[in-house]
Amino acid sequence: MDLLAQHREFLKDNIRKRADFSRTDQNQGIPAPPIEKPYPPDAVRIDLSRPGQWPNLNSQDLASAIGNRQSRRSYSREPLSLEELSFLLWATQGLRGKVAAGHAFRTVPSAGCRHALETYLVALRISNLAQGVYRYLPLTHQLLLEFADDCLAGKLTEAVFGQAFAGRAAVTFLWTAVPYRMEWRYGPAAHKVIALDAGHVCQNLYLACEAIHAGTCAIAAYDQLKVDELLRLDGEEEFAIYLAPVGKIIPMVL
Fold it and tell me: Which residues does 105 contact at the CB level (< 8 Å), separation at least 6?
């Protein structure tokens, strides 16, 4: 079978056809992995506003957001507010209900409620937030400061093969996969549904951006090693799978 045929088979594979669930770690009685990466107790964390605390968002209705949705690569120099960023993070990975051992219900679907993604931000222009790399903590709805870096715009642009709009965005969402969260339940079939989950998350970001008159454009063409290095990931137990710069839309001049 040639390479193209192999990839087509991957897309057509049914989870139950491939997976021997009796041999997964879940069915071997191994406890589920954490649903959020741990962090040091003294790490810098920033509280985010929650649903019901966004009275200043000038939002569109859902039908308008869907109708206006498009990939946008041109952004103004206007920063995003922390309130707007809070809304975008909640819309893409926020909790919406029960948290139980090994899973939590969120604002996006995920196979088996496994949610194998982590959300990182390269924050360049967010009001009242220092430039740096942050990670979203959905369980507490906070931002965790990973590290500061004055050269983030250039490093990010280089990591996405010179797509300059990434370095001009107010913030770039970078989703990483922690594959074992899904492998624990689905074994070899996990990797297809991780990719599907990333699509669910990014579509929510598109619509949430339209709702607050911001824009985004998903990026799947990137240098894997450079993006992983930028986020200081090991590239094996966690690695980047999708990016999306976000910025305010440039007003039309009539």
Answer: 95, 96, 97, 98, 99, 113
